[in-house]
Amino acid sequence: MNETDTRSRYREWPAPGAADVVRCWWEQRIGTGTEDYVQRVLPDGCSDVIVTAAGEALVAGPSMAVAMPRLPPGARLRGLRIRTDALAAALGLPGTEIRDLTVPLAGTMPDRLARSMAEAVWEQRVPESWRAAAVDGRVRYAARRLQSSPAVDAAAVAGEVGVTERQLRRLMLHHTGLGCRSLQRVGRLQHFLRLAEREWPATTLATLAPVAGYADQAHLSREVRDLAGTTPRALLRERLGS
Question: How do beta strands 47-52 and 76-82 pair?
């Protein structure tokens, strides 16, 4: 999202007591005006349960493509961001079923459970069903390893958790909705953004690229265009207002 656009007020904060499943709470408010607010949502490996002030409840699954939703003036949204490794544990369905999709929450679970979950999210309570959600330890370890070490070989990670590379791929797709290579690409993009937000433009993109795990600046540019829909420089200017 454009962090400098005053039409949008966004904040996020930790979810005490649910750190195994929830990455953060968040809330967004769009100011009044005459035009919709267009938001750039980048792949981050996570999923979100989103509830609007009008009572609409949605699930946004993990994606490898940028999304550009239009939010009307006065819109107010609250959400819970589900950790990459906790998607299947939290929602009780394979991650691949909602990859690259934003669907009604009621379409993923019984109506009564969906209503209860939507109410909890809007009231900023962790859904009761999530408190006992068990995340597969192998998936948790592998997801962290793949996202933090973009050059690591998936076969090596599989060996570290005691499965074959094929088994690891099946585990990751079921629990996160993303394959090993996709998790590495997302991790590399997010690492680049964190670095750039601290160091760019004092540090050049050519210098930041290998630090973030890219082969060179050309590799960075290709990946950012593919995942964010724009160039690295334009993306950083949008996010930082430079």
Answer: antiparallel
Q: What DSSP element (H or E) covers 10?
A: strand 8-13
* Strand duo 22-30 + 8-13: pairing: antiparallel
The Cα 177–Cα 64 span in angstroms is 10
Looking up tokens 């939703």, which residue turns up? 69
- The answer to whether residues 92 and 109 touch, using CB atoms and an 8 Å cutoff, is yes
The mean of the pLDDT values for the chain is: 92
Cα–Cα nearest to 8, from 60, 102, 71:
71
Look at residue 20 in the predicted model and tell me its pLDDT: 85
What are the CA-CA distances from residue 215 to residues 155, 224, 236 (Å)?
A: 21, 13, 20
Q: 69 CB contacts (<8 Å, ≥6 apart)?
A: 38, 39, 41
